[in-house]
Amino acid sequence: MIKLTTLALTILLCACTNSDDANRALTAQGFTNIRMTGYDWFACAKDDFYHTGFEAKNSNGLTVSGVVCSGIIFKSATIRF
Questions:
Q1: Beta carbons of 14 and 50 less than 8 angstroms apart
Q2: Would you state the pLDDT for residue 35?
Q3: pLDDT classification of 36: cutoffs 50, 70, 90
Q4: Is the CB of residue 46 less than 8 Å from the CB of residue 32?
Q5: CB within 8 Å of 26: residues ≥ 6 apart
Q6: 35: exposed, middle or buried (C-beta count within 10 Å: 0-12, 13-18, 19+)?
């Protein structure tokens, strides 16, 4: 039963990422070589529904990691490092 609960929780959390919006926000800010890393626990505010982790190169060519936080309706994406 515990394995089934763990599997259900994992599937549910994977659904709480939004790679398309995260990629759009990161590209608009000049990031390249963007790689999504999945759901990021405790990285966003309580009003954010999507917590999409990422690794990318910034405008200086340095690799950075962070999370793109966004809501379901009427909330734009916020990039956090």
A1: no
A2: 97
A3: very high
A4: no
A5: 34, 54, 56, 68, 79
A6: exposed
